[in-house]
Design goal:
The chain contains eight helices and no strands. With 175 residues, the chain is mostly helical. Helix 6 runs antiparallel to helix 8.
Length: 175
C-alpha cells in the first residue's frame, strides 16, 4: 500500500534527479557552450561584421546557397533565435522559405556546433547518451545529421518558395 510518506519521497526524488542532471549540464556542456559562443563572437570581430554581412548577401542570391549556406551561416554565427535576422539580406519573396530552411536546421547543426541551438541540445544529448552506452562514436552520426539537414533544408526552402509564389499569385501579390 502506498503511504503518504512514500509518495512524498518519490515526488521529491524526481526533483533530486532533475537537480543532478542540471548540475551535470552546469559542469559539463555549459562551459563548452560559453567558450564556443565567445569564440564565434571573436571570429566575427576578427573577420569583421561587414564581411560576414557581405557573405550573407552573396549566399542569399541563388536558391542553392540561399537554402543551404545562408541558414548554416546564420545558425553558426547568430545562433537560434537571432539566426532568422539574416533574412534581411534576401528579397521579401524569399523570406518565408529562408525562415523555413533556417528553423529546420536548428537540430541538425547541434551535433557538430552545439552553440547553434542550445535548446536542441537535450535531444542531441539523449541520442548521444544512447550511442555512448553502446560504445559507438558520435562524430559520424553528427556529420550525417548535418549533411541530411542540408538536404532537408534545401528541399524545404525550394518547396516553400514555390508555395509562397503560388499563393502570392493567387492573392494578386507582387514582389
Amino acid at each position: 500500500m502506498l503511504t503518504l510518506s512514500h509518495f512524498a519521497e518519490s515526488f521529491i526524488g524526481v526533483f533530486n534527479e532533475g537537480g543532478k542532471t542540471f548540475v551535470s549540464f552546469v559542469t559539463g556542456i555549459l562551459p563548452t557552450l560559453i567558450v564556443l559562443l565567445t569564440a564565434v563572437y571573436a571570429v566575427i570581430e576578427i573577420v569583421g561584421e561587414k564581411r560576414v554581412h557581405n557573405l550573407a548577401r552573396f549566399a542569399g542570391r541563388y536558391a542553392l546557397t540561399r537554402y543551404t549556406l545562408l541558414p548554416v551561416l546564420s545558425m553558426f554565427f547568430l545562433t537560434n533565435p537571432m539566426a532568422y535576422t539574416f533574412g534581411v539580406f534576401i528579397d521579401e519573396k524569399h523570406k518565408p522559405a529562408f525562415y523555413d530552411s533556417a528553423v529546420s536546421f536548428c537540430h541538425p547543426i547541434t551535433g557538430l556546433f552545439p552553440h547553434g541551438n542550445s535548446s536542441e541540445l537535450f535531444v542531441w544529448l539523449g541520442v548521444a547518451h544512447g550511442l555512448t552506452r553502446l560504445h559507438l562514436p558520435l562524430g559520424p552520426l553528427a556529420v550525417r545529421y548535418f549533411l541530411a539537414g542540408l538536404v532537408v533544408i534545401l528541399m524545404r526552402g525550394i518547396v516553400t518558395e514555390r508555395i509562397t509564389m503560388f499563393f502570392a499569385r493567387r492573392q494578386g501579390v507582387s514582389f
